[in-house]
Amino acid sequence: MQGLKADVVTYNQVTDVQILHDKGNLIPADWQSRLPNNSSPFYSTMGFLVRKGNPKNIHDWNDLVRSDVKLIFPNPKTSGNARYTYLAAWGAADKADGGDKAKTEQFMTQFLKNVEVFDTGGRGATTTFAERGLGDVLISFESEVNNIRKQYEAQGFEVVIPKTNILAEFPVAWVDKNVKANGTEKAAKAYLNWLYSPQAQTIITDYYYRVNNPKVMDALKDKFPQTELFRVEDKFGSWPEVMKTHFASGGELDKLLAAGRK
C-alpha cells in the first residue's frame, strides 16, 4: 500500500489482495473472478518438518498434542502461514471429533500450549527450529518445509504431510491503477495468464507448490503425498469472518491461549 507501485502481486492469503480494493481502490471488487481457480495459479497445504529419523514418531495432527512434543510456528496474529496452521489444526480436529466444538477447543488448547516459541514470522520460526535447535516439529506450508529441508540438508530433516489438511490458495492479481499508470497492463496480464500454462505449472512444482493442472500433478504423485483438503470458506466462512472470529482481539485464539495458561 505504501511501498513500490507493483504491477502484479502474489500473496498467500485472499485478505492481503482484497485490501488493495478495500483500502486503496487499486483493483476492482471482482478481481478474484478474472483468472481461473479464484485467481490462484498454485496452492499449498501444511507440512510438518521433523528431525532426522522422526524421533518423536510424528505422523498426524493428533501426535502434536502429546505432552512430549514441542512445536514451532509463528504467531497467528502476525503470520499468514501461522493462521493457516491454526485453521488446519482446528479443521482436522473438528473432523476427528465429529463436529464436537468442546472437544475441538480442548485439542486446540493443548496444541497451542505445546508451542515452544511464537516467532513473528516464518523466517524467525525457521531459524528457531533449524539453527537454535528448539522444538520437535516446525509447521509451515508444504512448499516451505520442503525447501527448508533442502536448505539444511546436512541436518537430515524429514517432511510429514498429515492426512486431513487445508487448501492454502496463493492468489495473484494485476494492480489496475498501477499498470495503467505504468503502461504495463498487457505485459502484467500476459505474465499472470502464463502462470496457468503447462510449462509454468511444471516449473512451479519444482519449488514444491501444488498446481491445478491434473496432467502435471499426475506425473508427480510421488512428490506430493495424497491428502484430503478442505477450503477455509467451506469450514469457517469468509476470510473477514475468520479474522473476526478467530484472530481479532478477544477472539477464539486469545481464548484458547488463555485457557492454556490456566
Automatic annotation (TrEMBL):
The membrane spanning regions, by residue number, are: none
Q: Which domain of life is it from?
A: Bacteria
Q: What is this protein called?
A: Sulfate and thiosulfate binding protein CysP
Under the heading InterPro entries, the entry gives: Sulphate/thiosulphate_BS (IPR034408), Thiosulph/SO4-bd (IPR005669)
* A GO MF label: sulfur compound binding
Q: Name one Pfam family in it.
A: SBP_bac_11
What is one term from the GO cellular component aspect held by the record?
A: periplasmic space
User: Which PROSITE patterns does its entry note?
Assistant: PROK_SULFATE_BIND_2
Which gene name does the record give? Answer: cysP_1
Q: Record's SUPFAM superfamilies?
A: Periplasmic binding protein-like II
Keywords assigned by UniProt?
Periplasm, Signal, Transport
Q: Which PANTHER family match?
A: SULFATE-BINDING PROTEIN, THIOSULFATE-BINDING PROTEIN
UniProt subcellular location? Periplasm
Family classification: Belongs to the prokaryotic sulfate-binding protein family.
Sorted alphabetically, the Gene Ontology BP terms of this entry are: sulfate transmembrane transport
From which organism does this entry originate?
A: Klebsiella variicola
UniProt keyword Signal present: yes
